[in-house]
Amino acid sequence: MKFYIITGMSGAGKSHAMRTLEDMGYFCVDNIPPSLIPKFAQLGGGTGKFKNVAVTVDIRGAGLLKGLFPALKELDNINIPYMIVFLEAGDKVLQKRYQETRRQHPLESNGLKIEDAIKKERAMMADIKSRADYILDSSELIPKQLKKELMDLLAEGNNYEQLMISFVSFGFKYGTPLDCDLVFDVRFIPNPYYNISMRKLTGKNETVSNYVLKHEITKGFISKGTELIEHIIPGYISEGKSKLIIGIGCTGGRHRSVAIAEEMRSILLGHNHRVVVRHRDIGNDAKR
């Protein structure tokens, strides 16, 4: 029996994770009291009734911090193997998600502001996060990408030792993303914006992409840029990082940065890296 404990920050995607596991044939129980975890695991594994089981535990469960660690110890004592998956996301991302959905954070009922509630929860979850076998950061993932990450994790857990590389295309006129580990300025590359036929298109369009990528200066940058990224990945992993965020910026974030981020993503995927891409400003100049 495979037994997974899904936990993590509120708003980081635990509900999406459970739906994915259900689609994969797992028997899932949401927000189980920690004290019941060993009994539930014995029921599933001992009877052979359930082949794959997943439970979620979070701050909604009574006595999470008090009850989870004794439950894990009991699982160890009765020789039931388990894996802990911790769903993570940045503070600003979590805050934005709650604001967009108009849902209330579980700790807001105590009179805390959303940003203070997230900080308090992060402190409460720190010990549990340190025990996790896998930490999945959903900050840059849409639900479809999160589902794929989970399926890859559960099907081939060894792939999860890899770093998550996240490309963010953006326009300097709208400001540099604050959470980037690296930022590349590609404004030195010929700009499709000055070609009327391509002005209203984006870097995801084949015509624009071909125009941006055909220049020798672009080819050289992409070659050396991907080489640099692969060179530094082992260092980031050795420092305990699970994610590398790379900003690719041009003037408006619509043409050059988009095409280059897509191309670098494709190359690194071909080298068996875990890569996602987000185009922050791709729609900002649509009416110009």
Question: What are the key terms here?
Answer:
alpha/beta, single chain, 2 domains, Rossmann fold, 288 residues, five-stranded parallel β-sheet
Task: Report a brief summary of the structure.
This protein is α/β, with parallel strands linked by helices and 288 residues long. It has helices at residues 14-23, 37-47, 64-77, 91-101, 114-131, 143-155, 196-199, 206-213, 216-238, 256-270; strands at 2-8, 27-29, 52-56, 83-88, 134-137, 164-171, 182-185, 243-250, 274-279. Helix 1 (14-23) packs across helix 6 (143-155), helix 4 (91-101) packs across helix 5 (114-131) and helix 9 (216-238) packs across helix 10 (256-270).
What can you tell me about this protein's structure?
The chain has 288 residues and is α/β, with parallel strands linked by helices. It folds into two domains: 2-161, P-loop containing nucleotide triphosphate hydrolases (Rossmann fold); 164-279, no CATH class. It is built from ten helices and nine strands. The strands form two sheets. It has a five-stranded parallel β-sheet, sandwiched between helices. Helix 4 (91-101) packs across helix 5, helix 8 (206-213) packs across helix 10 and helix 9 (216-238) crosses helix 10. The relative contact order is 0.13.
Strand and helix layout:
Blueprint: E1 2-8, H1 14-23, E2 27-29, H2 37-47, E3 52-56, H3 64-77, E4 83-88, H4 91-101, H5 114-131, E5 134-137, H6 143-155, E6 164-171, E7 182-185, H7 196-199, H8 206-213, H9 216-238, E8 243-250, H10 256-270, E9 274-279
Parallel strand pairs: 1-3, 1-4, 2-3, 4-5, 6-8, 6-9, 7-8
